[in-house]
Amino acid sequence: MDKIIISILKDQNLGAAIRQMQTFITKNALGEFKDDFMQIVSDYELMKDFVKKGLQDSKREEVYLQLLKRLYGLCNDMTADLKKKGTAGLTYYSQYAFDYIQTDEIRLFLESFVQDVALLSLENNDTRKQELYSKHHEFLTALFYHILTSAHWDEQTKLFYQDLLLSPTIDSMDAQLIVSAVMLAVLNVFDVNKFMLLLYVYQYATDVNIKQRALVGWILSLPDGETRLFPELETSVKKAITSGTVKRDLLELQIQMIYCVSAEEDTEAIQRDIIPQIIKGQNLNWDDETNSEQLNDILHPDSSEQAMEELENSYMKMMDMQKKGVDIYFGGFSQMKRFPFFNFINNWFAPFYPEHPQLKTIEELKDNNFIQNLFKHSPFCNSDKYSFLLAISSIINRIPQSIREMMAHDNIFIQGADVENKDKPAYIRRMYLQDIYRFFRLCPLNSSFTNPFVQDKFGWKGLFFLNKLIMESHPEKEMKELGYFLLHRKKYTLLQQLVTDNPLIKEDKDGLYLQACSAFKQAEYERANELYAQLLSMAPEDKNILRGAAQAGFAVNDFARAEECYAILHQMEPDNLLYALNLAISSVRNNHVEEGMQLLFKLDYEHTADPQILRPLAWAELMRAKPEAACMQYDKLLEQSSKALPDDYLNAAYARWFNCDITQAIELFRRYIRLKKASQVNLYKFLTNTFSNDRELIERNGCSTFDVNILIDILGEEKENEV
Predict the structure, then answer these.
(1) What was the pLDDT predicted at 300?
(2) Residue 396 has what DSSP assignment?
(3) Partners of 460 in beta bridges
(4) Boundaries of every domain in the chain
(5) Which of 506, 498, 482, 484 is nearest to 247 (CA)?
(6) Per residue, what are the HEC states of 445-493?
(7) Which of 89, 152, 194, 604 is most buried, by the most CB atoms less than 10 A from its CB?
């Protein structure tokens, strides 16, 4: 099927596409599509007959494109049909057969539900209420699956749903779910009219929930090659993105998507850095102190306050992450998506409402004050609210009665910051994105759809700012802001994807800086060095540029530039220890050994026995071929074994070797080998590479290649004897 699509969209070769489709229909037994296919073939044969007769037709190109569009639509219809037949989860059997239901009946049913709910509020009839919501849920589920797997829409169908979704006479939650169905349908198989519907609803919806779902929908289903066949796509998207407000919305949405794909990474960070402190804090015993705790209070009177402060800081750190957009609940709720409730695709996208028929078994919890309070104060997406209720219901009978009574009180306090701006577009959009991410990450039925959260060989599909349709709206300012966000979040692969061959990343200071940072993080050091050279000419006193230029210079052995940049930084911040150390090291490497050594001695005097200073000081002694002095410094460094690095043992071994203390040198080399976990099989290669990397240092201290080879053999034999 991909070859046919390429023939239609890229090559625009109708004849080739027809021949390929003929084979495809026969191979896949798609006889139900043959009549439509043969009608296209017949119309094309008629066009060819006109050409053979030498007849001129001013609309020939227009007709040819129309035939391509018809063939493209048919191709997508076949794809949708094959997916539906091949995926059990895309089929829903219902009493409502939407293939035979008229659009007016759909509108009437949805409008009647709103009226029935209003009348029901005047009654106190639980049975009638359950029947009403069950019937409505069944209808909406069937409609959801019908849209999800429908063939491509004609203009009339698009206009019907367009009018329906903007109508104030249907329930907002119904409209929201229909928007999600349309989005998934386009992610299943692209349909220009469904896409245009999402774009139109975003522009004209007054309900913020519907509007934000439509925005996410058309962004996630942005076309690519289809614009050649449907130029109206380009015109419509450009029209939608004319205002600065929309561009800001798109930037916020792009950033929110990046937070989504970072959910598992952020979960690991929370479990590694924050949760242990919270668990530790929960062990504080405020009522029943043991003797050991009383003794601890005497010996360490501030320990309790410190522990409580650490607990509070850990909790507030997690809340701060949440406010910035981090999906802090993904890790916990990802384990709660195995309930039968989530066997239905529409339930992953359903707005939360307590009357959901598939929650009828947990009636006791729906009006629970604790649950209502929790949902009010905690930023749970809709999917997680359903998960939480289903999870609680599975253990409610095992919860002690006293706890259950406490949960029923309406004044129970939920610790944590109230959800601010809950009705704002950014918050609504973020919660919806989390619903979508959970579906694509956790639902086994997601494989039929184009996943906007995965990476392929071309990069991350979700980086929609690089889509041609978005770029042509010229969001230069937002593009730079996105670049800096990626840099701040250390998303270097995405940053490289963003800045590479991007005409909106200009050759100004910001654009060059983003390119330079990306090049350096991708180990393209020569390019980074060149870019920083340009930046230094633009902003010679910018600290970020100076730091980057110094690092890039060091990476390509341009120690003169590194020394120059660190000298300026050191002058700007004379108390910055890191700048001073790097300046000293750069000076030594730039053959300004005495200047570098003087600075190192000064720092060593001011910060006695500091490993940060001893390390470069000892190494600098080696670089100026004074191994005896280096031995003294490395002895001090290795005395602090807990702070020693593997390379410290290597360089200490060099110092002993250069100082003719071969026995001690071998012992230190062996310690380095153990720390690096070099295997016997690869030991000779490992040692050869190690000494090769330090060739300049070795030669400065008068050792030849023969000396190196002999030492490698000695160390290799020592290791063999150990085995």
Answers:
(1) 47
(2) G
(3) 455
(4) 1-86, 125-242, 609-722
(5) 482
(6) CHHHCCCCCCEECCEECCCHHHCHHHHCCCCHHHHHHHHHHHHHCCCHH
(7) 194
What does the alpha-carbon distance between residue 51 and residue 207 come to, in Å, rounded to a whole number? 53
Phi, psi of 659 (to 5 degrees): -95, 10
* DSSP structural state of residue 522: T
Tokens of 303: 């320990």
Token digits for 239? 């029209």
At residue 121, the pLDDT reads 81
Q: Are residues 599 and 584 in contact, defined by beta-carbon separation less than 8 angstroms?
A: yes
Residues in the chain: 723
- Across 434-458, b (16+ Cβ under 10 Å) vs e yields bbbbbbbbbbebbebbebbbeeeee
Query: For residues 647 and 446, what is the distance between their CA atoms, to the nearest angstrom?
Result: 48
DSSP-derived secondary structure letter, 155: H
Q: Check: CB of residue 180 under 8 Å from CB of residue 148.
A: no
Place of tokens 């080696």: 622
Per-residue confidence (pLDDT) for residue 421, from 0 to 100: 74
609-722 in CATH: which number?
1.25.40
For residue 574, give the nearest of 548, 606, 549 by alpha carbon: 606
Instruction: Look up residue 150 and give its DSSP letter.
Output: P
CA–CA separation, 315 and 326 (whole Å): 14
Name the DSSP class of 416: S
Tokens of 721: 């004897």
3-state DSSP percent of the chain in helix, strand and coil, to 5 = 75, 0, 25
Q: Hey, how many other C-beta atoms are within 10 angstroms of the C-beta on 624?
A: 16
pLDDT of residue 305: 57
CA pair distance 443, 435, nearest whole angstrom: 11
Residue 588 in contact with residue 598, Cβ under 8 Å? Answer: no
Q: Dihedrals φ, ψ of 460, to 5°? A: -85, 125
> From the DSSP assignment, how many helices (H) and strands (E) are in the chain?
40, 2
What 8-state DSSP symbol labels residue 544? H
**Which residues of the chain are under the pLDDT cut of 50?**
278, 281-289, 293, 295-296, 299-301, 303-304, 308, 311, 315, 413, 416-417, 723
What is the spatial distance between Cα 649 and Cα 641, in angstroms, rounded to a whole number?
A: 10
For residue 608 the two structure tokens come to 């006695």
Question: What is d(CA 330, CA 639) in angstroms, rounded to the nearest whole number?
Answer: 45
| Residues 517, 495 contacting (CB under 8 angstroms) | yes
Q: What is the pLDDT at residue 287?
A: 46
- Give the residues across from 455 on adjacent strands: 460
| Rounded CA separation 137/601 (Å) | 78
Q: Are 677 and 658 in contact (CB under 8 A)?
A: no
> Do residues 607 and 633 lie in contact, with contact meaning Cβ atoms separated by under 8 Å?
no
Structure tokens at 263: 């959910």
CA angle 255, 261, 267 (to 5 degrees): 110
According to DSSP, residue 207 is labeled S
Place of tokens 């490992």: 686
Structure tokens at 668: 């230190």
In 3D, which of 453, 435, 446, 433 has the Cα closest to residue 385? 435
φ and ψ of 347, to 5 deg: -70, -20
Tokens describing residue 171:
């329930």
Query: What's the gap between Cα 574 and its chain centre?
Result: 39
Residues 6 or more apart from 634 whose CB is under 8 A from it?
614, 618, 648, 651, 652, 655
Q: How many CB atoms lie within 10 A of CB 388?
A: 21
How far, CA to CA in Å, does 291 sit from each of 46, 295, 296, 304, 713? 99, 6, 9, 15, 61
Instruction: Quote the pLDDT of residue 286.
Output: 41
Comparing CA positions, the residue from 523, 365, 342, 349 lying closest to residue 434 is: 349
pLDDT at 719: 60
Query: Residue 643: which of 619, 611, 666, 675 has the closest Cα?
Result: 611
Question: 17-38 burial, b if ≥16 CB within 10 A, otherwise e?
Answer: bbebbeebbeeeebeebeeebe
**Closest to 205 (Cα-Cα) out of 253, 168, 243:** 168
Task: Give the alpha-carbon dihedral of 381, 384, 386, 389, to 10 degrees.
Answer: -120
